[in-house]
């Protein structure tokens, strides 16, 4: 899901990444709506609120909402900045790091909410700001590594694209276009996953309360661990087999072989 970049990504890569991250975005958005009475997976409504507060002259609220918008922007900015700069050293790390930062933000929201949150306005404004930053990180990552094919924190553009695609599919020549069909599949998965995440939050928030942010973090962790296994665990397994066949002197493989041999020796001693 994370290890490939831009046009090298397959339909399966985009569906898996889009589905899981859209589910978390829907969960975050509805959980924040229930708790804080604010949407935190997109900022379209916040621009409207900003305009309304400016017209009323409520400069304190103007500052708060402007900060929310800036933090969402900074989340997108930082996410893509990490991708374009860290990729030359380690592509997987470049793609995983924004999700790690998002998980840290969500765990903090869950921990603070359980321990200290009392419903005060300044607390709400702080936690909403942090959640907007975290969803900005997610949105920037998915858009960056998928060549802007996946944006999972809001559905305005997704619904627009689906409407256009479905109108095109009324003509046979477009229904045979594999690229357009694949695009429609990804967008449908994103919409359905977002709705499922929102429904999940609406039903289970009353049972889990702020612990729901820990569950969201687990979903994001699945994305990170899945690709870690695909890249490293399978790579080491392949290298190990390769060495046994061709006697390749790779230091990492030799270390793993010695470790396995020592482990087998220890198990033999205990059995005897």
Descriptive overview:
This protein is mainly α. It contains ten helices and no strands. Helix 1 packs antiparallel against helix 9 and helix 3 runs antiparallel to helix 4. Mean pLDDT is 85; it is low at 266-272.
SSE arrangement:
Layout lengths: L10 H26 L7 H13 L2 H28 L4 H25 L5 H25 L10 H13 L3 H4 L2 H31 L3 H35 L4 H21 L1
Helix pairs in contact: 1-5, 1-8, 1-9, 2-3, 3-4, 3-5, 4-5, 4-9, 6-8, 9-10
Tally of strands: 0
Average pLDDT = 85
Tertiary shape: globular
Distance between the termini: 45 Å
Low confidence ranges:
266-272
Encode the helix/strand succession as letters.
HHHHHHHHHH
What is the makeup of the main sheet?
none
* Broad structural category: mainly alpha
Please estimate the helix content. Answer: over 70%
**How many DSSP helices?**
10
Radius of gyration: 23 Å
- How much strand? under 5%
